[in-house]
Design goal:
Elements (H helix, E strand, L loop, with lengths): L6 E7 L2 E7 L1 H14 L3 H10 L6 H16 L3
Antiparallel strand pairs: 1-2
Helix pairs in contact: 1-3
C-alpha cells in the first residue's frame, strides 16, 4: 500500500487563519463539492467548521466528502 503525503493549505475561517492537512484526493473532492454548490472552498470549510462539534476539522472535511459521494451513489 502506498501512502500519499498530506497537502497542507491555509484558509481564513471566521476571520482567522488556519492550516488544514488532507490527502490530495480529499482536497480535489472538496474543490469539486464547492464548485457544484457554487461557493468558495473557504466557505465550504467554514460551514463544516460550524457544525463539527468535538470532531477535528480535517476529520469533518473527510466525512463531508464521504457523505457527498455516498449521497451521489447510494448503495
Amino acid at each position: 500500500m502506498t501512502y500519499k503525503r498530506l497537502r497542507k493549505r491555509s484558509l481564513t475561517i471566521a476571520g482567522h487563519r488556519t492550516s488544514i492537512a488532507l490527502e490530495p484526493e480529499f482536497w480535489e473532492a472538496l474543490e469539486e463539492i464547492s464548485q457544484e454548490r457554487k461557493i468558495a472552498l473557504s466557505r465550504l470549510v467554514a460551514e463544516a467548521d460550524e457544525g463539527r462539534g468535538e470532531t477535528s476539522l480535517s476529520s469533518q472535511l473527510r466525512l463531508l466528502a464521504l457523505a457527498h459521494y455516498r449521497q451521489r451513489n447510494p448503495s
